[in-house]
Design a protein that fits this description.
The chain has 202 residues and is α/β, with parallel strands linked by helices. It has one domain: Maf protein (Alpha-Beta Complex), CATH 3.90.950. The chain is built from 7 helices and 7 strands; from the N terminus they run E-H-E-H-E-E-H-E-E-H-E-H-H-H. Strands 1, 2, 3, 4, 5, 6 and 7 form a 7-stranded mixed β-sheet that branches.
Length: 202
Amino acid sequence: MLILASASPRRKELLSLLVREFEVLPADIDETPKSQESANDYVVRMAIEKAQAAAEKYKQQSNANVSAIFIASDTSVIVDGQILGKPSSLEDSQSMLRLLSGRSHQVVTSLCFFNVKNAHLATKLVISDVLFRAISNVEIEQYWKTGEPQDKAGSYAIQGLGSVFVQSMSGSYSAVVGLPLYETAQLLAQFGIHSLEDMSHE
């Protein structure tokens, strides 16, 4: 039994490329970075806490499967060591996109697998570099009106209209979208699930 600890439709869509059957059970956690916490440590901690919180929530269910495996992920956009989360307003979005305009930044994505039965926990960290072209203030305002930036780390979606800002990228495209598929498949195999082999047994 696989359970995705995320409400993100993007993560659900990406995971469905690897496995046919899984449940979705997001859990709310405090996503405030700790004082002096590095971006890498932060995103790994977020994925672990999401997986563990979803597992605790799941255990309360009467039909809980003791061998359930939880998958959680977290993505942050990093520029000058600063963690850019999701924008809370147009002003917030403007501030973020002006920071990213005409320069490169890092997208740091963590992955956590948590097996409830034996409390086995495994994590991966994927870092990608993204270069933006210069973005005008008018473009930022018009982009905000589309609604796309409003629930995205760094205030843009590389898989959507935000791709028009991306001059180049190096790393994992799927990780920037929200779930690193190569690393997810590796961890699935560690937990006894071989994506392509399983899909061949239809």
